Each structure stands twice: as C-alpha cells, then as structure tokens.
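Technical annex, item 7. During the second reporting period the consortium partners agreed on a shared format for inverse folding records so that results from different sites could be compared directly. Each record opens with the tokenized structure and is followed by the designed sequence. A conforming record, contributed by the partner at site C, is shown below for reference.
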C-alpha cells in the first residue's frame, strides 16, 4: 500500500475509534450507571462534560498544531484519549467518570481537526481529494456499524462496558499510534 493511502487510513482508524467511543456511550448509559452505582439520568453530566471539553479544545487545536507540530499534537491527543478511556473503564463513581470523560473529550477534540491538518500537510495538492475520501471511510464505517440495531445491542450488553472501553480504545490507538 502506498504511503499516500496509508496516512489517511491511519488517521481514519483513530477517528473511527474516537467517533465510535463518543457515540456508543449513549447506548451504554444504563450499564454504566449500574456499574458505578448511580442513576442513568445522572450520566447526562458525563455527556455534557465531553461536549464542553470539545468546545474548549477544538478552537485551540490549530494553534497547538502550529506551535508544537501537528504530528506531535496528534500523538499526544491519542495518548490523552486512551488515558481518558482507561480512566472511564476503571472509574467507580460519577465524579471520576465525569472527569475521565472530560479528559477523553480533550483528546478527542484535538484528534479530529489535527488529523485533517496532518493529512493536508503531508498530501500533495493533486491527491488531496483522494486522501480525504480515504479519511472519510471512518465516518462511513461508524454510521454503518452504529446504525445496525444488532451492533448497538451487542456492543454494551454482551460484555461489560468497562472491558469494551479498555479493549477498543487501547487496541485502536496502539495500531494508529504506531504510524502517526
């Protein structure tokens, strides 16, 4: 596989993981609430906290990429996201879960725009449309995977949500981080 296709696919894997993780929580709220000993309605705070972290860190992502280098920021964003995911998986109270979701939101907010910036910087102009098409694979796969009623039911219910969070986040990020 050529390097021009490999970069968008690596970025797409990281974005797929971030997109899947940020949306699958909605179907897992009942299992998470039971596990940490709270009401499912209280977990709306975790959803809101993730969105607040996105709102705070997306605007500064391009400044950070210019200041520290897009690849470095992308690598750190993946690390922060994985640490946030692991913290979510081991959280035992509403407070630790909400703080972990904020950490996860920080990483997620930096990953998406910086991944596109990396792609634009490393791809020649005449191949940019093809590279963006390869990058959009993650969004297409996420929609297909999460729109399936069977996958929505199986993802949080066939295994504990914390094991699923640890396994998917660390596996996807280890694969993507190796080449980013």
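Designed sequence (site C submission):
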């Amino acid at each position: 596989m050529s390097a021009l296709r490999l970069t968008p696919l690596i970025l797409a894997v990281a974005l797929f993981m971030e997109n899947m993780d940020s949306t699958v929580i909605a179907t897992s709220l009942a299992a998470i609430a039971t596990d940490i000993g709270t009401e499912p309605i209280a977990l709306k705070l975790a959803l809101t906290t993730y969105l607040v972290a996105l709102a705070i860190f997306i605007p500064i992502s391009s400044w950070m990429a210019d200041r520290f280098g897009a690849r470095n920021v992308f690598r750190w964003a993946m690390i922060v996201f994985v640490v946030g995911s692991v913290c979510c998986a081991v959280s035992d109270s509403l407070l630790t879960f909400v703080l972990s979701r904020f950490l996860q939101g920080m990483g997620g907010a930096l990953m998406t725009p910086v991944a596109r910036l990396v792609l634009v910087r490393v791809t020649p102009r005449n191949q940019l449309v093809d590279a963006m098409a390869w990058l959009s694979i993650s969004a297409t796969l996420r929609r297909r995977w999460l729109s399936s009623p069977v996958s929505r039911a199986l993802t949080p219910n066939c295994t504990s949500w914390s094991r699923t969070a640890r396994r998917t986040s660390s596996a996807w990020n280890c694969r993507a981080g190796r080449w980013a």
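The chain has one domain: 3-177. Residues 3-177 form a domain with the Growth Hormone; Chain: A; fold (CATH 1.20.1250.20). All partners now use this format for quarterly exchanges.
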